[in-house]
Each structure stands twice: as C-alpha cells, then as structure tokens.
Specification:
Largest sheet: 7 strands, mixed
Number of strands: 13
CATH class of the largest domain: Alpha Beta
Shape: globular
Radius of gyration: 18 Å
Helix content: 25-40%
Structural class: alpha+beta
CATH superfamily of the largest domain: ATP-grasp fold, B domain
Distance between the termini: 30 Å
Number of helices: 6
Strand content: 25-35%
CATH topology of the largest domain: D-amino Acid Aminotransferase, Chain A, domain 1
Length: about 280
C-alpha cells in the first residue's frame, strides 16, 4: 500500500517518519498529541508551544500558546487571548480546537525581521533518476499581526540570503542554506524509503538565534506559491519543470503572499538546483 502513497495528511505520522532518520533527531522539535496534561507539561518545560491541527495546511488553525507574567496567553490569527489561570486558558483553547485532533509542538524562538518572525520553505523534488534535489529555498516573514509565516496568511516572501547575510554575514548565509538543503535531502530520502511513490516535499524550517534549523513541518503536496514571489525566477522555473517529469501541474495564482520590497531583494538563493 505504501508503495502507492504520494501524500500523507497527518502531521503526527509525518513527524514519526522524519524521526526514523537518526541524523534528523536533533532538528525535530518535540511534538505530541494535544491533551491537558501534555500541554501543561510542555508549557512548564518550554514556556511557549504551538498547537496545530493534525491535518490541514496554509497555517490555518495554528495557535501560539505561552506562559506570561500573571497568566497564560494564546494567539489565533490576529487575536490574542489572555487568561489568569491555566485551567481557563485550556478550556478556551480546547473549544477553539473544535473537536478536531490537534498536536502540541515545542515553540522555537525564531529569527525576526523588523520584529516579525520568519522561517523558510525548502522545496525537494525527485528527478527521473530517483535522486532528490533541493530546487528552491524561500524565506517567509509573518504578517505584522500574525504568528504564522505562510504566504496564504499574508506573509512576505524574501530570498533567504537577503535576511541572513546582512545580520550574520555572507559566509554564515551560505553555510545555513547548505545545511537546510542537507536536511531537506535527508528528510526526502527517509520519506522516499517509507513512501517510494512520493515525488516532492516542502519542508517548513525554522532557524533559532543560534542558527540551528528546526523542521516544523513536512508537506507532502507542497504549494510552490512562495517561489513565484522571488525576484529571480530560476527556482520556480526549476520547480515547474521538475514537476512535469512526474506529472504534476501547479496553480501559480498566489494572490495573498506578498513580494519583498525591491530595495531588499538581491539574487535568488538557488541559481540552480542545490544538489549533493
């Protein structure tokens, strides 16, 4: 059966598949099914977590939950809700989940641009030879009033080195991009072993203040929308061309994602596919 599977919807299953590759263990934040006991324990340990639907996409339903002075707070979309006790916060959060299966994920304190969190979309595709390549990396900066970075939620798309190099230098940017591509190849190889019919993945990678990448999510039917917003069209051209080899066509209408200001744009991160 797995030999025919091309997409997996459960985030928990995808997390467990990722964890089968030992080299990725340190790059996967703790992720568990939602429960009162687990939420309390993870907030005590980490201070901040994300609660997200086990199935779904586009950042819909993702909530940031944290302990604050004098109580607890969670953010859903643009709305922030504050509570004096854990019990009151939990009951409100449980109602927000609406009976759907949710997960709790350790919160990563990610890098920020102008005060807004950002992460990265790494596109992995299988070539006719069976080799996985990284065909693009794009940075996604959250909408000013939201905790999620998705373009569909009003995020702004940048070439990744435009955000990393000014702060950490070009060498650090180059090393980080290489590390993300390596993580992408390891993840793709593991999914390829588990699901041989799979042809593409979109990894959502967060980077913490020590420049360590974390795998927030693995998308098995990724939307290439972010790459249409990069100044250099090379990545999206590669992505579309590679997808034709395995019979997928994309809808490249990307109305909600925003393009980075021209003054902040340079060359795209991938003049050609990043391969090992």
């Amino acid at each position: 059966m797995k030999n025919k599977v091309k997409a997996v919807s459960s985030k928990l299953i995808k997390t467990r598949v990722t964890l089968q590759e030992r080299k990725l263990l340190l790059h996967v934040p703790a992720t568990h099914p939602f429960s009162r006991t687990r939420l309390s324990a993870m907030l005590t340990k980490y201070g901040m977590v994300y609660v997200k639907p086990d199935t779904g996409s586009l950042g819909i339903g993702v909530m940031r939950v944290e302990r604050i002075d004098g109580g607890y707070r969670y953010q859903a979309g643009m709305k922030k809700h504050t509570f004096p006790t854990f019990d009151r916060m939990y009951e409100a959060l449980r109602k927000s989940c609406g009976g759907r299966r949710h997960l709790i994920q350790k919160g990563i304190h990610v890098l920020r641009h102008e005060g807004r969190p950002f992460d990265f979309r790494v596109m992995m595709q299988k070539r006719p030879s069976g080799r996985w390549v990284c065909s693009g990396i794009a940075a996604r900066v959250a909408h000013p009033q939201k905790a999620v970075t998705n373009g569909s939620q009003g995020g702004t798309i940048y070439a990744p080195e435009d955000l990393i190099a000014p702060r950490f230098g070009p060498k650090a940017a180059e090393a980080l991009l290489a590390s993300m591509a390596r993580i992408g190849r390891l993840t793709a190889a593991q999914f390829g072993r588990s699901y041989p019919a799979m042809n593409e993945l979109g990894l959502d990678l967060a980077v913490d203040r020590r420049l360590k990448p974390w795998i927030l999510e693995v998308n098995t039917r990724p939307d290439p929308c972010p790459f249409t917003k990069l100044a250099d069209p090379t990545s999206i051209r590669n992505i579309v061309a590679y997808a034709k080899d395995y019979g997928r066509k994309y809808d490249l209408t990307c109305a909600k994602a925003r393009r980075a200001p021209r003054a902040g744009q340079q060359a795209a991160s991938t003049p050609s596919a990043i391969e090992s």
